[in-house]
Design goal:
The structure holds two protein chains of two kinds. Chain A has one domain: Orthogonal Bundle (ABC transporter involved in vitamin B12 uptake, BtuC). In chain A, α2 crosses α12 and α5 runs antiparallel to α6. Chain A is an all-alpha fold. Chain A contains 14 helices and no strands. The radius of gyration of chain B is 19 Å and the shape is globular. Chain B has a two-stranded antiparallel sheet. Chain B is mainly α. The chains are: A mainly alpha, B mainly alpha. At the A-B interface, α5, α6, α11 and α13 of A face α5, α11 and α13 of B.
């Protein structure tokens, strides 16, 4: 933030007030932290709009119904928030790990394992009271997710094994295991469809508002976001995490146990994804199906990036993505688009979110320009 | 014991050679790109795009080879798009790749519904015929296994010595490797780093889509959703297994060919293992091999996956 030298005309360097320039840059940067994610989403909506036009549908109709079916009524809003919960929880773990430079692409598999573990507990321990069964099921889910994150995390920290590859392979393995379980061992007794039995009544998450489906998962997510915010920005562990991300060698020399921290971060990310899977089962779907949160792991990655890797940012981005997710069904029906269209929307948004940091170049350029302009107006200089 | 050995027939090895070919071809494109310092996780999506556009081209122009040409053109465009994002914009390479994968999965199924509508049996198009190599295919044992394949399969195996030759025996290869190890030094030597990176991205893209067209036009004559089924990831893994050396990568590709062929074979034998588990068997194999090979990545290009800032 202080490398101001390059941007200034070398002709009259003596007249430049670097402090003022720094302040200006910081001011514009703060604006851009909000502007960039918004722009990324808007640009992707425009690009997707072009795809909609190609299919002889009206983008206006499509987006109007997207908005209507995600925020149109209290019921729709509750639905959007329910969709946001797994994205926020998974994105939170990914964001914190990413702060330490770990790319966890394994959200997909960790969510699935969380769902499997939570369902096993929630179906079989039906005789437990709610106050015990719900926490126990969520804990089991967290354990499942953490288990699935442990192998890539351990091998990454200890041997430098490519974590992107291991997490992605484990995603596909988890999908296979889930498919096998719901068709075989975990299939509902006497049922025909490939799905598990319904979880015990005492394991279902209570609803927050009558006549909506909003469950307490959103509260769990908000509490975990706030806890993580404190952990990352207000604790020594958070400081260590950020140091590892910025300069692992410096972290090592200043006494941080980098490897242990990396393993713990992956375990935490896996556990959060596992909680996401279990909350979805206990709160929304109530039984395990193949593909029960398909693509949420990858979209959570976009949520983490869009939220600038900060827990509060993840919360906001998660709600936005949840709304997009909840509104897609309505959009696809209203504009008569194929169902796979919602996946195109995901892909385009992730693409523009990932290239959006390029826009962070602008604050400096704008600051320099506005500075130059004020200087030419008043030739005496600043 | 006899039952297990009964799997290893001529047909089995034929299937292994065949199934390995798209993985090897895509991996050869990938190794050129990774040697130039870029990690392309979007290989899976690019293969899927290739498979789709090959069928589309074959459908539109009634010629399988026109389909292959269309697939390669799309590959060039995909390479440019990916290259623009990771080279010029310097976006995170793994996430850009993931975006391409999701986009490919959604786009190809959407376009297939749009163009051919919803059908019980997917539309079949003209495919690429098997080309038996004269004389050689009559060889006992090996003749059938090695020399009765589709021309694209031979091409996949020919790409291995070609990639090895370019990388290790030409000045181009030296430049590419220099860029992957130390781009600043390469730039100082007067190598156009960004230009070379773009060139490799285009090569990787067209190799991946060509590999995709093997899946849809040589193995089958139609497109089904997610036809690539993780083979792009297997190609990325074989690059790591082969330590960024084309010959080693070909061995890695053959391991996956083995896994795929074994899975198909066991399925046709009706062995009481759930299909879902059989399908993930090659992926599980990939994971085990990656974990065993651990951190032995001395051959890894030093500047891999790091964005390059031109001064």
């Amino acid at each position: 933030m202080t490398q101001t030298g390059k941007c200034v005309e070398p002709a009259e360097p003596a007249q430049v007030n670097y402090e003022q320039l720094d302040l200006l840059i910081r001011k514009f940067e703060n604006i851009f932290y909000i502007l960039v994610p918004v722009m990324a989403v808007l640009i992707s909506l425009v690009v997707v709009g072009i795809f909609i036009v190609i299919q002889n549908a009206s983008p206006l109709v499509a987006y109007a119904s997207l908005f209507k079916s995600s925020f149109g009524s209290l019921y729709d809003v509750s639905n959007s928030l329910n969709r946001a919960v797994p994205l926020i929880l998974t994105g939170l773990g990914i964001a914190v790990a990413a702060r330490a430079g770990i790319m966890n692409l394994g959200g997909e598999g960790q969510i699935i394992l969380g769902g499997i573990f939570a369902t096993v507990v929630a179906v079989n321990l039906y005789w437990l009271p709610s106050a015990l069964l719900i926490p126990l099921s969520i804990f089991a889910g967290a354990l499942g997710g953490a288990l699935w994150a442990f192998v890539p995390g351990f091998f990454y920290a200890k041997h430098g094994t490519n974590i992107i590859i291991t997490t992605i392979l484990l995603n596909d393995i988890a999908i296979g295991i889930l498919g096998m379980l719901v068709k075989g061992p975990m299939k509902e007794a006497g049922g025909y469809a490939p799905q598990s039995a319904v979880v015990a009544l005492s394991a279902k998450l209570p609803f927050l508002i009558d006549s909506t489906r909003l469950h307490v998962g959103i509260l769990i997510a908000v509490v975990l976001v706030l806890l993580t915010q404190v952990l990352v920005f207000r604790s020594s562990a958070g400081h260590e995490i950020r140091t590892i991300g910025e300069n692992p060698n410096f972290a090592r020399h200043s006494g941080v146990n980098v490897k242990t921290m990396q393993i713990w971060l992956m375990l935490g990310a896996g556990a959060l994804a596992g909680v996401a899977g279990s909350v979805e089962i206990l709160g929304s779907q109530h039984r395990l199906r193949s593909g029960f949160l398909a693509n949420y792991g990858y979209e959570a990655l976009a949520v983490a990036l869009l939220g600038q890797k900060s827990p509060i940012g993840v919360l906001l981005a998660g709600v936005l993505f949840g709304a997009l997710k909840a509104g897609r069904g309505g959009m696809v029906r209203a504009a008569e688009l194929p169902v796979s269209f919602s996946m195109v929307l995901s892909g385009v948004i992730i693409f523009f979110v990932v290239i959006s940091p390029i826009m962070m170049k602008f604050p400096r350029a704008i600051a320099v320009r506005s500075m130059n302009r004020s200087r030419t107006k008043s030739p005496q200089g600043s | 014991m006899e039952n297990i050995l009964a799997v290893l027939t001529q047909e089995f090895f034929y299937a292994m050679i065949r199934m390995a070919s798209p993985i090897i071809l895509a991996a050869m494109g990938e190794v050129m790109l990774e040697r130039a310092g870029i990690f392309n996780l979007g290989l899976e999506g690019m293969m899927l795009f290739g498979a789709f556009f090959a069928v589309l081209g074959s459908f539109l122009f009634h010629s399988a080879w026109a389909g292959v040409a269309l697939a390669m053109m799309v590959g060039v465009l995909l390479g440019l798009l990916f290259g623009w994002a990771v080279i010029s914009i310097r976006a995170n390479q793994a996430v850009t790749g993931t975006a391409i994968n999701i986009l490919a999965l959604g786009m190809t199924s959407m376009l297939a519904r749009m163009i051919w509508g919803v059908m019980d049996v997917p539309l079949s198009v003209s495919s690429i015929d098997v080309f038996a190599i004269p004389l050689l295919h009559k060889m006992p044992l090996l003749g059938y296994v090695l020399f009765q394949h589709s021309p694209l399969v031979y091409l996949a195996y020919l790409s291995v010595p070609l990639a090895a030759f370019v990388l290790y025996r030409t000045s181009w290869g030296l430049k590419i490797r220099a860029i992957g190890e130390h781009p600043k030094a390469a730039e100082t030597m007067g190598i156009h780093v960004l230009r070379w990176k773009y060139a490799m991205a285009i090569i990787a893209g067209s190799c991946a889509t060509l590999a995709g067209s093997i899946l849809s036009l040589s193995f089958m004559n139609l497109f089904v959703d997610n036809i690539s089924a993780g083979r792009g990831f297997m190609a990325v893994v074989s690059v790591i297994l082969g330590q960024w050396n084309p010959w080693g990568i070909a061995m890695g590709g053959l391991i996956f060919g083995f896994g795929n062929a074994l899975q198909m074979r066991l399925q046709s034998f009706g062995i009481p293992i759930p299909t879902d588990l059989l399908l993930i068997f090659p992926i599980f194999l990939a994971l085990i091999v990656v974990l065993i090979s651990k951190g032995s990545s001395a051959a890894r290009p030093s500047a891999l996956a790091k964005p390059y800032y031109k001064e």
